[in-house]
Amino acid sequence: MENRFNHHGGFCPGxxxxxxxxxxxxxxxxxxxxxxxxxxxxxxxTLITIVAIFLIFLFFIPHNASYSACRISxxxxxxxxxxxxxxxxxxxxxxxxxxxxxxxxxxxDEYFKDIRxxxxxxxxxxxxxxxxxxxxxVAIAISMPDFTVSSSEKLDQQxxxxxxxxxxxxYASIYGIFLSLWWIFFERRGLAKIERQxxxxxxxxxxxxxxxxxxxxxxxxxxxxxxxxIIQTLRETFNLDFIKDMNAQxxxxxxxxxxxTNASFATMAQRLQEASEDLRETLxxxxxxxxxxxxxxxxxxxxxxxxxxxxxxxxxxERFDESVERSMEKIDYELASAVERLGRMTELIGREAERIRxxxxxxxxxxxx
Length: 369
What we know:
This protein is mainly α. The chain has helices at residues 5-8, 13-35, 44-60, 65-74, 76-89, 104-115, 118-142, 152-205, 212-237, 240-284, 289-368, and strands at 91-94, 97-100. It has 2 domains: 5-210; 233-360. It contains 11 helices and 2 strands, in the order αααααββαααααα. The chain has a two-stranded antiparallel sheet with strand order 1-2. A hairpin with a 2-residue loop joins strand 1 and strand 2. Helix 2 (13-35) packs antiparallel against helix 3 and helix 3 (44-60) runs parallel beside helix 8. It is rod-shaped. The two termini are 20 Å apart.
């Protein structure tokens, strides 16, 4: 999330000086001891180590929670504008009511990460004591005397120098531990201020944000609607009554076509029998020339009748083929519709499973936090 703090500054000199004050006074006291203005001695190597630790501490100050809380307070109106824009971008309408799914706490967390570096804030409390201990050992190593001297007076002098160096070297460890405690104090104080600001914003914008229970209830309602759609899709896909009606209609058409075909064959057989009888009668009357002409005419009529019967049979067979083809096309269409519905159902189930997986992952993440 991009905020506008980098463009509007937000320097807090008061908080910076408050965090800066006591560590700076500690360094000033050590400088006074080194220069002899105060009644204790400080070695050069110890002073250099402590000044280096102090400079590192100055680098960490802008990442302290108190300093960041001050920056948020100085630019509170600007942050509130960003919050309102973020709420609009994450708006969700449920049952005719529009609210935001972004919580104030999530917004502040992301906003806070843009103001300071959490990595520096986490390591600061432990890095200062480590630097102090490191400075102590460096100071001891630098002040380590030469024990190879031969005279006892020089040896006593070297031991005195070692003890003096060790005494001043521990100032670095003391300073490191002090900086750690000082940092933790202002860190906890700043986090408490930010928490109070979050609570105030939650009270102010609570009515514009969907609560966790409302979102869970909406998720359950959506799941029930999805289940109902899936059940309806299954019912439409596997409509047994439609399949039964289609089979019954197909059997009725098939039975009617078979009956028509049988009737056509029976008619043709009857016509053939009549033609055969007429043919026999014609052969008996061939002796008479005048009857021969009549016989020829009768044979022509019989052949025409036979041709008409064959044509009717062909038409009956064509109707049978057309009926079967229409039935098969209807079956193919219904099967294609069923496959398409199954595809929609599979896609719907897949989206629902993905949504449930994201919802559970988000819920597990929030529980882990």
